[in-house]
Every structure is written in C-alpha cells, then in structure tokens.
Design goal:
With 725 residues, the chain is α+β, with helices and mostly antiparallel strands. The protein folds into four domains: 127 residues, membrane protein fhac (Ubiquitin-like (UB roll)); 81 residues, membrane protein fhac (Ubiquitin-like (UB roll), Roll), CATH 3.10.20.310; 84 residues, membrane protein fhac (Ubiquitin-like (UB roll)); 245 residues, Porin (Beta Barrel). Helix content is 17%, strand content 41%. β18 and β19 form a beta hairpin. α11 crosses α12.
Length: 725
C-alpha cells in the first residue's frame, strides 16, 4: 500500500507511547539511578542516544564526591531523584531518534534492577532496531510544475550541481536530518541569488510494504529583489566609509542572504566593532510587500546596518616565570581606531629579567614592538600589519641587539581559514661573543662551532642581516576548535630568503602539517597528525670549490629541521629525534682543558617527516573532565644532499624511529593539561648511550656498539598545557 504525507507527520505517526511498566519495582522519593545502559543499539552512536535520555544518574565516583563534599567550601553532589514518567518519556524519545534516522519499526523497552540496600536502580534500555526505510528516489521541482525555475544568467551550472547532489541520495537510508538539510540548502540557494522569500517544502511518498520512501522537494523561489539604500547606525568614532568598505551589500545589487551574513562577519573583523547586525526591510516572511514593485520586477529592499563599538583603548599585561629566564612580564596597549578607518595600533613590551632563574646563565631578553593593522587592503577581507621591533638579548650565545620589521598581508577566508604573506628584514648587531664561556663550560662545543661556521668569530661587532618571505595558510574545518572531535586542518608554509644580497644564507623551506579528528562512538576520538618538510639551499649556501661542506651545513643550523617533543614524536626529548651530537663542554684543569658532555645537541637535517596516531578515551569513574590517551608516534630527520657530504653524523641516526605511550588529560578552566609517557620502540645507539660514555669511547678508541646502554633512556615524560595537536 502506498501513501503520501508530509515528512513531519510521517515521523510523528511512527512514534508510539510507551505503556507504564513500574508496578513491579518499588520506588520512593529518595530512589536514584546508579547507571543507564543501552543494549541492541548498532546503527546510531550510543553517544547520540544517551544525549536524548532525560533520566539522570547520580554520576561517576559518587562516593568520592560525597567525601569531598564534607570539606568546607567544596560542594556536595546534587541529588537526582528518579521520576518514572521521565523514564517512560525516554522510551518515546529513543523511538523518535530512530524514526528520525529512518528506522520506523524500532521497538524500545527497559529492564530495571533494584538495589534494595542502597535504594538504587540500574536501568537498561533494550532496543530492537528493525529494518531501515530506504530512499527509492529524490525529485527537485518547482512549486508550480508548469513554470520553469528562473535561474539567473551565469548560475545555471551552480543550480544544476546542487539539485543533482540532492537527487543522488537515492538508495540511501532515509534520514530526517539530511532531508531537512537538503530542503534548507535548496531554499538558501535562491535566497543567495536574488529571491529573499524563497521557500522549499518536502513531502514523502511511502511504500510501507517495501520500506521505501520517495522524497520530493518543491521549491518556490518567490519574487526577485535588489538591495536598496544602505543606512549605517551606531558608529561614533569609526567613519561610515570605513564600515561600508567592509560590507558586501551595495545598493542595486541582487539580494543575497550570504552577502548579508558575510557583511556581519567582515564588520566584526574590525577590532573597534563589538557587535554588528544587518536588517533588510521586506526580506522577512511577515514583512509587507510592495505588490506593484514586485509585479514590475523593481522590488527594492532597504538595509540598515547597526554596530556597537568596543572601547577604543585597551590596556593589558601578563606576569609569569620561566625557569631559564626568571621573572617575565609583558605589557600591551592598543588603540582600536587609530586615526580612524578601523586601524589598530598596538604597543607591546616584553621583559625576561633573569631574576630568580634556576640556571647560572639565564636568557635575558627585552623586546619592544609597535604594530599597526590596516583593514581592507586590496580587498575587504585583506588586512596589512606593519610591525617594527627592537630586541636586546643577553644569553650564553651573545650580547646583541636586533632591529627589524615585519610586513604581513593577511587574507581572511571563511571561518578561521586564512592565508598570509609575511616579509621580515632584520639586522642583529653583536656586541660581545661569549668566547670565555667555552673554556668555562658555559656553552657547548657544538654551539661554538656553529657560531664559527656562521662567520661570527672572526670579527667582533659584525652585523648579521636576514631577509625572508613566508607564505602560510590555515584551511579546514573543526566542530570545536578548543576540543575537536571531528574535522581536518591543513597548514602549509613556504619560506624563501630574498634578496640574497642582504641575507647571510640562501634557501627555500617548505613545511606542511595535517591534523584529522574522527569520532569512534561514545567519547572516543581518533586524532592523527602528519607533518613533512624540506630545506633547499641555493646560491651562497651551497658548498663551492674549496668550501668545507660541514661549515656550509652548520650555517643553516637555525633553519634545519628537527623532531621530537611534547607536540611531536613524544618518545624523544624536544628536537632530539634523529641526528644529534654530544654537548661537549670544556673545563680548565691547570694548563689543560678537560672535555665532558652535558647530554646531546640537535644536529638537524634538510628533511623531516613525522606522524602521530592518538586514541582519546574517557576515564571510568572520573567524569567528563578527565580523559586518557594512547598514542603511536614516529618520525625521521635526514639529509640526502651529496653536496654537503655525510655531515659526520653517527651511522643509523637518520632512520625512521617510532614510540608508543599513554597519558592522562584533564580539562580545566585554563585549558587541557596532559601528562604523558613515551617509550622508544627502536632507539638509535645515541638514544640509549650516555653522551659522556660516547666521548670516552671516541677518545679511547672503544667501538660504539660495545658502550654500555641504559634502558631507562628509552622512556620520556612530557607535560603539555593546551591541546597536543
């Protein structure tokens, strides 16, 4: 038998009320639910089903929370008395959820077990899903079948593509959510192409015997309209012309709801704009219509733009502590409408004082920067940021002052997708190199050799010039940027030194990373990351006749690739996966210098590839703010360029390495905190041999393979604040 009805009616009729079934179980006003389970649920994730259930359990770790509640100022857990009627309504809600997913024959019942001693209930919903209803066909047609769609010239391909994508769902399981999404997309297309009152209705023709449904979308574009006068209200300090430059709506242009929404988004890109709204008179279904204008095709819709400005001036700062820099402070002052036009002027001062640092030679750094952001450069979504800076540093490497400037073009796309082009030019004046620190053991031989390779040790007070262009992009989509469960993010970057006449090195540097998140049901998420990079030296950075290849390689040390660390391959310390050398120090002993090692220094390479696969799991009994992670990380750092020789790196350090581990994650008001432990699955010799033993072996001619290995060096511990991806 074939019947025809509207989609909402079909779904409502598919849901039957549950019969009361609580005569067998005794409950009172103090009865609570200990746990709720689902049995027989396969086609719909249990997480989604649990979300529709209104019966509440008393929560995990209840005894611990009660004990903590006895402490002053610590709240005790709330009570959730059991309500039989709510349980019966949950049966209806679960059936409705299945009906919305195309399962109209689903049956739901519940089993209840009572703990008389504790007055608690354990509830199990038993679900028999049945067979799903399949879409036999989808049709998109005009509400008036005798009138063709008035598709605007030049947009025929776009409309056909959308209509075909909707019609191609034949053969799939009926899902009310997808049917609604298709209905809304069809109406939205017309509202974005000059028809503000476009509507779409969806109906079903069901064959109950075959469990099939034919879906019909009837689209009524409605009258065509254009934007009329655009009025701007609420601006006090920013000019009206600056606001109009941020909007896509213009008098005389065809009406577009997408243009209205984008204008709101673009206006709020201005720092001075706190809230923005665009109201178009006549676009709403309840607004009056000028019938004569509609009949002649001259329907004009005036628009009113209203904004609320933020405070023009903003003052802020931070105070912190870093073990190798001591007390640190940062202050910021911003003017959000500097000289009008929506420009933002920001002054930033940073001071790492070295006070109370735990190291003998703390990194002292003082930096001052001025940043001017100019919106609507070239296009309304492009901004230009000019940022001159001066920085003074006093550390184990040198006493120096750097002066430079950045110029960045930032293009805003949809959402948080952006593309930027940055140019930096800077000069660093070296006042003093720490030559004496080599003999005293304050800096390592590798750092000393790197400075020598960069040509720094021959002339004190040398000025080092850098000039680089960097193109970066951030594209993709996440369901929740702070704690993603589903989505993909791609971040490519390309950097080049130019012009090479004012840069100490010459290279191209390409780097790309991709992050993906996939929910696996319940609270389980699979998170993965892939990253790859390559350095291409050219010109003055390529060894020529008579040049030392190792010296040329060390000149590129600052831009070479490394791997390992909290947000990378977690079985290794920061930057120490792959090629590394002992951090050799010298101490004076009479007239002699005695070498010793303090761990390893990253040697780096011209290429890097790494991956990470992480399973994020809930922690039983500890609630939603606690989670656990199990991961497998791997990576490789290497150099395959015959022009630079073998670089003198020990055999086997440029292979693929992997680590496995686990950790605990805690969501806090300041962000997630993660403690993890990684274990090296296939360490290199330098990963398990102490650097001091390696120096001793080389000085005494002892083969590296015979040196003592330390199993504890295969473990690495990490603490991360914020997401690790």
């Amino acid at each position: 038998m074939r019947t025809s009805t509207a989609l909402p009616i079909a779904l409502v009729c598919a849901v039957a009320l549950a019969a009361p079934a609580f005569a067998q179980v005794r409950v009172d006003a103090l009865t609570e639910v200990r746990k709720i389970e689902l049995a027989g649920a396969h086609s719909i994730p249990k997480r989604r089903l649990t979300a529709v259930i209104k019966t509440r359990t008393r929560g995990s770790a209840y005894g611990l929370r009660v004990a903590l509640g006895r402490i002053p100022l610590v709240p005790a857990p709330d009570r959730h008395p059991f309500v039989p009627l709510t349980l019966q309504e949950d049966v209806v809600r679960l059936r409705n959820a299945y009906a919305m997913a195309g399962f109209f024959q689903t049956t739901v019942r519940y089993d209840v077990e009572r703990d008389d001693e504790d007055n608690l209930l354990d509830i199990t919903f038993v679900i028999e899903e049945g067979s799903p209803t399949v879409v036999s066909g989808v049709t998109v047609q005009a509400a008036d079948s005798l009138t063709p769609f008035p598709v605007p010239d030049g947009h025929e391909k776009s409309w056909r593509k959308l209509a075909h994508s909707v019609e191609d769902q034949a053969g799939e399981r009926l899902k009310a959510e997808e049917a609604r999404r298709d209905r809304d997309a069809l109406a939205k297309w017309w509202r974005d192409h000059g028809h503000p009152r476009a509507t779409c209705t969806t109906s079903l023709a069901a064959d109950s015997a075959r469990l099939e449904v034919r879906v019909t979308h009837r689209v009524a574009p409605g009258p065509f309209a254009r934007f009329g006068e655009v009025r701007v209200e609420g601006n006090q300090t920013i000019s009206e012309s600056a606001l109009r430059g941020q909007m896509e709506i213009e008098p005389g242009a065809p009406y577009s709801q997408a243009a209205v929404d984008q204008s709101v988004s673009d206006l709020q890109q201005l720092d001075i704009v706190r809230v923005a709204s665009v109201d178009v008179t006549g676009a709403g279904a309840s607004d009056s219509v000028n019938a004569a204008a509609v009949a002649t095709g001259d329907w004009v819709l005036p628009a009113r733009v209203r904004i609320t400005e933020a405070d023009r001036r903003l003052v802020g700062g931070d105070l912190g502590y870093v073990t190798d820099a001591g007390l640190s402070a940062q202050a910021r002052w911003a003017h959000r409408n500097f000289a009008g036009g929506g420009r933002t002027l920001t002054l930033t001062a940073l001071a790492q004082t070295g006070w109370l640092a735990l190291t003998d030679d703390p990194d002292k750094r003082y930096r001052f920067a001025v940043s001017l952001k100019q919106p609507s450069v070239l296009t309304r979504r492009t901004s230009l940021v000019i940022s001159p800076f001066i920085e003074h540093r006093d550390d184990t490497q040198d006493l120096s002052t750097q002066v430079g400037a950045n110029a960045t073009l930032l293009q805003h796309l949809t959402g948080f997708n952006t593309v930027s082009l940055d140019y930096q030019i800077a000069v660093r004046h070296i006042d003093q190199y720490r030559f004496g620190d080599l003999a005293s053991g304050d800096i390592g031989l590798f750092t000393f050799l790197t400075q020598a390779a960069q040509g720094l040790l021959d002339s004190l007070g040398q000025d080092l010039l850098t000039s680089t262009f960097t193109l970066t992009s951030n594209t993709g989509r996440l369901d929740d940027p702070a704690n993603p469960r589903r989505g993909l993010i791609l971040r490519p970057a390309l950097q080049v030194t130019a012009p090479t006449a004012i840069s100490s090195v010459a290279y191209w540097r390409a780097d790309v990373s991709a992050n993906a998140f996939v929910p696996l049901g319940g609270s389980v998420v699979l998170a993965s990351r892939v990253r790859a990079g390559r350095l291409f030296p050219f010109g003055k950075s390529v060894p020529g006749p008579g040049d030392d290849p190792t010296t040329k390689f060390l000149q590129l040390h600052d831009v070479a690739f490394t791997a390992g660390g909290t947000g990378d391959v977690r079985g290794w310390e920061n930057r120490l996966l792959g090629p590394k050398v002992p951090d050799i120090r010298f101490e004076e002993s009479g007239d002699s210098l005695i070498p010793h090692a303090e761990g390893y220094d990253a040697y780096g390479g011209f290429a890097r590839a790494s991956y990470s696969v992480e399973l994020r799991l809930p922690v039983p009994l500890l609630g939603p703010n606690f989670g656990s992670v199990v991961f497998l990380d791997g990576g490789r750092v290497w150099t395959r360029d015959d022009r630079f020789g073998a670089q003198g790196v020990a055999e086997g350090q440029d292979a693929w390495f992997a680590a496995a581990g686990a950790g605990l994650a805690i969501n806090t008001p300041v962000g997630p905190i993660q403690v993890s432990t990684g274990y090296k699955l296939n360490p290199s010799i330098t990963d398990v041999v102490d650097a001091e033993d390696l120096i001793r072996g080389e000085s005494q001619g002892i083969p590296v393979d015979t040196l003592p290995r330390h199993p504890n060096r295969r473990w690495q511990f990490h603490l991360a604040i914020g997401t690790s991806f």
